[in-house]
Design brief:
180 residues; 4 helices; four-stranded antiparallel beta sheet; four-stranded mixed beta sheet; alpha+beta; elongated
Length: 180
């Protein structure tokens, strides 16, 4: 039996959040990861999975409390309002993380020797590590690596093999780059 403070609109929104997380999870688990023999591939790492599953698990626990447990205190409606805000915050965070992981996988970032390849806006980009020119780290936390022809690679150091790629680029371009 649903509690008195559970109204249809928040119930639909909470359900939509959980469905979005399920879609992201299905996209990650059902689609096989891209395989490029001989190439080192950058993909979602342990940190990404921890935040995705942890946030979603916490949002699910809070949803269960909101739907079936409730509160017997005088300020139950206020408490459940705050709980609903927490459900949305963790659910939206989990969905964003899941869709970011899908985007990272579709980017197909990989390297072999001094060649770096990735997909960006439907195009396959190929750069040589020796053409690395400059880097910056905006508020997003991703490293923006710029090459001589103007191509920008957005590298996540928390991704699997991401840090190794950054080290390989910095070793090949030692002393030839600057911070922008």
């Amino acid at each position: 039996m649903l509690q008195a403070y559970v109204t249809p609109l928040p119930l639909v929104l909470v359900g939509t959040l959980h469905i979005a997380c399920l879609v992201a999870l299905a996209g990650l688990l059902l689609a096989p990861p891209p395989r490029y023999p001989g190439w080192r591939v950058v993909g979602p790492g342990g940190t990404h999975w921890f935040w995705f599953l942890g946030s979603w698990g916490f949002a699910t626990l809070l949803s269960w409390v909101w739907l079936f447990v409730g509160s017997a205190r005088r300020d139950a409606e206020v408490q459940m309002g705050y709980l609903l805000i927490l459900i949305f915050a963790f659910g939206i965070g989990s969905a964003i993380c899941g869709f970011y992981m899908i985007r990272l996988r579709r980017m197909a970032l990989r390297w072999r020797g001094t060649s770096v390849r990735w997909r960006q806006r439907g195009r396959e980009l190929v750069e040589d590590m020796g053409d690395f020119e400059s880097w910056r780290q905006p508020l997003s936390g991703l490293f923006h690596l710029r090459f001589r022809d103007g191509a920008i690679l957005k590298l996540d150091l928390y991704a699997r093999n991401g840090e190794e790629l950054a080290v390989a680029i910095s070793e090949r371009a030692a002393g030839k780059f600057e911070f922008i």
